[in-house]
Amino acid sequence: MRKLLVSAYKEVLLLLRDWGGLAILFFMPAVLIVTITLIQESTFKAVGESSLPIILVDEDNGEIGHMVAGNLNESPNIQLVTEHEGKPIDETYARSLVSEGKYQIALIIPEGISKELNDKVNHNVDQILGEFALVDADSEPTEEKEWKTQEITIYFDPAAGQTFRNGVKSSIEQLLAKVEVRKIYDVFIDQMELEEDPGLLNGDIISFKETIAQKGNDGIIPNAVQHNVPAWILFGIFFIVVPLGINLVKEKNLGTYIRLRTSPVSYAIILGGKILTYTVICLIQFILMLMIAKYVFPLIGLIEFDPGGQFPLMLLIALVSGLAAIGLGILIGTIAETQEQSAPFGAIFVIILAALGGVWVPTFIMPEVMQKISAFSPMNWGISAFYDVILRNGSATDIARPLAYLLLFFTATLLAAILYDKRNKTS
Amino acid sequence: MDEIIRIHELSKRYAGSDRYALKDLSISIRKGEIFGLLGPNGAGKTTLISTMCGMIKPSSGELWFDKLNYSQHGRTIQRQLGVVPQEYALYPTLTAAENLYYFGSLYGLSAVELTSRIAEGLQRVGLSEFAKKPIKTFSGGMQRRVNLLAGILHRPNVLFLDEPTVGVDVHSKEVIMALLHELNQQGTTIIYSSHHLNEAQHFCTRIAIIDAGRIVVEGKPDQLIASAPGATTLENVFIHHTGSQLRDYA
Lengths: 427, 250
Description:
Helix content of chain A: 55-70%
Largest sheet of chain B: 6 strands, mixed
Structural class of chain A: mainly alpha
Radius of gyration of chain A: 32 Å
Distance between the termini of chain A: 30 Å
Strand content of chain A: 5-15%
Oligomer: heterodimer
Strand order of the largest sheet of chain A: 2-1-5-6
Number of domains of chain B: 2
Radius of gyration of chain B: 18 Å
Number of helices of chain B: 9
Structural class of chain B: alpha/beta
Helix content of chain B: 25-40%
Shape of chain A: elongated
């Protein structure tokens, strides 16, 4: 036991005197979590919380144009723009402003759309009411007419992503459908000569109730921060692979390895000292990242991350994920012969595991084949466990499976490293 | 004198290699000897020392340490061995005292025992005032002295030395050689490997010249010189038995 503790103490001393290693372990993940969360948060805000400027060119100047403008104006997330630098915007100018990236969207309401819609609706309502003989006997029979479909043009910034474009298009379609329904409804009221509006369009007949399907009743309402914080905590933890791999390779190249291998201690004890030290480092890293998410995030305009009562389970996930990362670092450090092999390989491998694990993009939007591969990434197991606890309000039982996988990964990588070392000794 | 290490028909062939690093090598080393192991590059010296230290396992043959078989009592044997590699086997960012404390602890020495032995050792090699300085700030000679101390803190029965004085200044060399003589007088068997044939001639009590994985000759330095025709130094003996051609291996 004393040999193990002394080995761990030696590792601590080595780390404390290695500023580069400390930067990789603590500073880089801290910068990463703040930067990525800020970037992703602002992207969310672009389509959600902050106001989005939309150019409206109303060439119709009729009822439809006024209704669209009125509805857009009512939306707190939209800022209607009709002129730029004091100059009124027409369709050509709108297109050039959007193509230059000054605005993301321009909406062009063509001339005559209100009249066309009015005529069409009046004609159709007349026909329907005529079927029921509800129109005046002296009214003239309606003529069959060829209707022209009116096109509202939307210009998008070429840099706007497909998801963003779909979201905006769907909102505008919804708005136009509402305008059409209102128009039809008004014509019916008018044609039927009703003195009072029966109020059929007041309030939604069908509404949506958005509920986050969590386990239990005390779950946290998920937000971007709660998606990002665990993902980047895990990424930081796995980055331990790089300094740990370098540490092992350095030891081999320094000659200290010869001394260690000829001393009466097993390779397991030597590794045990590293495992103990780096596990503590993983936990410190986890606490540091949580503190940043809790105390620094609100200061820079991000939502505070509060683990609430789920802290002990999160700590457990960080511990087991840390062990998995340490196992991988030991294996890479044991196999690699030079720092030039271990450092880039370790870093790139962790990035691949992160990409596969769903740190960059959620696994559910990956192609099917990638989703299958993703199931083998230890980072995917870690993220699943974190999401189960934070977003789904899961219990220890719910995360038992991913934790077991992570522990198995740790055992397998550690055993592989010990066997590789033993094989080298006997070969 | 009693024998402390006995090697019988030891062979070692590395995986992927078509030649034997050691071939049916037999040797006996007696307690209290300063045994010199000399040979050209690639002769098998490092493999033989690594096998005797328990770092690598032989392909065949038997090794005994004080009547204990290596394959069954590896850890017990390793506790009685000290190794001073040619490389500076020290952590550059740790201080001299921290390095010595760590390596001494691996041999099961208590904190009190270690502290006193470290202070005593550092004083013996003239480095007391540098105990708390990081190794990376030490000169080559200073690092060699700490390297030696790290191998002898636990007072081993057998000490393996691989080029213990290579690249050091004359003063450091004097201190190192004096300390080694002192250890030997206290009963430590020394197994010494070097290319400094002149140093080996004066330092060793018995010498074996190894080539192509076999012992080609062994004996006391003066006996070896006398047995080789026209030889006046150990270097002449060495050339006589191993030839003059270059031994380059890649």
